[in-house]
Amino acid sequence: MTGTKKGTPVTLSELQAMKQRGEKIACLTCYDATFTRLLEAAGVELFIIGDSLGMVLLGYETTVHVSMDDMVYHAANVARAGRHALRIVDLPHQSYETPAQALANARRLVAEGGADMVKLEGGIGKVAIVENLVRHGIPVCGHIGLLPQSVEKPEDYRVQGRDEASARAIMEDARALQAAGAAMLVMECIPASLATDITNAVSIPTIGIGAGRGCDGQVLVLYDMLGILSHKPPRFVKDFLRDTGNVPAAVAAYVRAVKEGSYPAAEHEY
Questions:
Q1: For the CA atoms of 14, 17, 19, 25, what is the dihedral angle to 10 degrees?
Q2: I want to staple 217 with a disulfide (CB 3.0 to 4.6 A). Which of 28, 156, 206, 207 is the partner?
Q3: Where are the alpha helices (DSSP H) in 64-163?
Q4: CA distance 108 to 132
Q5: Cβ neighbours of residue 171 closer than 8 Å, sequence gap 6 or more
Q6: Of 170, 147, 177, which Cα lies nearest the Cα of 64?
């Protein structure tokens, strides 16, 4: 059971409290008003309006071609219908090269897109940008491990942090982002043991995608979770529609599995 009441907006402080009491956070990507209503009805507490929309909606092979206009448009679709879930919106590729550029674009995501929080990729190298955003009152979610905006070809999507040096670097990224003021972390495609260590090392909530069951919450790309893919799914994806038969039931099953800790299972971990 969630500690948040459906219909009342989820806050960062509530997500922080969920981490502290060991209650898992259910997150999915979302890009439009219809799915916003459906996902909130199923109890999803956290949305990522992600630049993954470039691949699942716009037809690109990677996220790097997604624009600020794309992100604002889809974030606003979600915000108009949203009543419950906290909304994290991605800053797209090359939209946060400097602190000033990041601030201008983040303000646009908040003002025009209804973002509650913005997400950016990278660790220690993004500390100054995170600090500047937080100083100006914009909550930040970091994204470490696999960084999709750095991927040029689909075959370059690979697990990160398998060796000791790279695992240590990802841990240092997590600590640096928290120290800079980030209020949440997404960890993508890293070994489950590393994700668990990071989750225990930081005081802010961690959301995993291909990062194992030790994270404070889980996220999947909505279309992956529903099994409507044009490609072979990565190891960490589970098709919740196959066993439920309809979309509302599939989303409810995903939320239940995250809450109970049955997803991700061992076969979904690295």
A1: -30
A2: 207
A3: 68-81, 99-111, 127-135
A4: 15
A5: 194, 197, 198, 201
A6: 147
Q: Where are the domains of the chain?
A: 12-268
**Its pTM surpasses 0.90:** yes
- pLDDT tens by residue, 113-142: 999 999 999 999 999 999 999 999 999 999
Q: How far apart are CA 91 and CA 119, in angstroms?
A: 6
Helices 127-135, 99-111: crossing angle, 10 deg rounding: 50
Name the catalytic one among 14, 188, 267, 269.
188
Residue 231 pLDDT level (bands cut at 50, 70, 90)? confident
* Rounded distance between C-alpha atoms, residue 47 and residue 85, angstroms: 6
| Cα 134 from Cα 230, distance rounded (Å) | 38
Question: Average per-residue pLDDT in the chain?
Answer: 95
Pick left, alpha or beta for residue 244 (phi over 0 → left; psi -120 to 50 → alpha; otherwise beta).
alpha
CATH homologous superfamily of 12-268 equals Phosphoenolpyruvate-binding domains (3.20.20.60)
- For the chain, percent helix, then strand, then coil, each to nearest 5? 45, 15, 45
Please state, in angstroms and as integers, the Cα–Cα distance from residue 264 to each residue in 48, 75, 210, 239, following that order: 18, 27, 8, 12
